[in-house]
Design a protein that fits this description.
By secondary structure, the protein is of the alpha+beta class. The chain has helices at 16-44, 98-101; strands spanning 50-53, 58-62, 70-77, 80-90, 96-97, 109-116, 130-132. The mean pLDDT is 88.
């Protein structure tokens, strides 16, 4: 039975079967949307950059989308809690060392990247966020 927004009618007695049918119809709609979202997510997952850092402090960036020359570096850290662009790195700079990316002397920090076009405008979604230290809740 498809979902019927007119049921149950105002002032009508509660009928378990009618409510069960409504809930089952809503669940079917949610399940169908969840499947569609999962399919889109799988389709676009390769277009999201993924940053990793080895135990030795070497950073790599994986991206399966169109080739990009530069990556914007975004950070937040103690004393600068809002995300801000801290510069850019050419794709050729990866793998990168901690010294190229890590803010000096901060007890906590977070970093993320996005690809940019030649005009410095973002052209990819943000990468995953890598966090160090006890990052406070936002």
């Amino acid at each position: 039975m498809p979902f019927d927004a007119t049921l149950p009618a105002n002032g009508s007695p509660i009928v378990a079967a009618e409510l069960r049918n409504q809930f089952n119809a809503l669940k079917a709609l949610v399940d169908a949307q969840s499947a569609q979202l999962a399919a889109w997510q799988a389709q676009f997952a390769s277009l999201v950059p993924v940053v990793t850092r080895s135990a030795g402090g070497i950073w790599t960036l994986a991206y399966a989308g169109p080739a990009l020359d530069y990556w914007q570096v975004w950070v937040r850290y103690e004393g600068s809690e809002a995300w801000s662009e801290s510069g850019e790195l050419p794709t050729s700079a990866f793998p990168a060392a901690d010294a190229d990316l890590v803010p000096d002397g901060t007890p906590w920090w977070q970093i993320k990247f996005c690809g940019e076009n030649g005009d410095g405008k973002p052209v990819t979604p943000f990468s995953n966020i890598i966090s160090f230290g006890p990052v406070p809740a936002s």
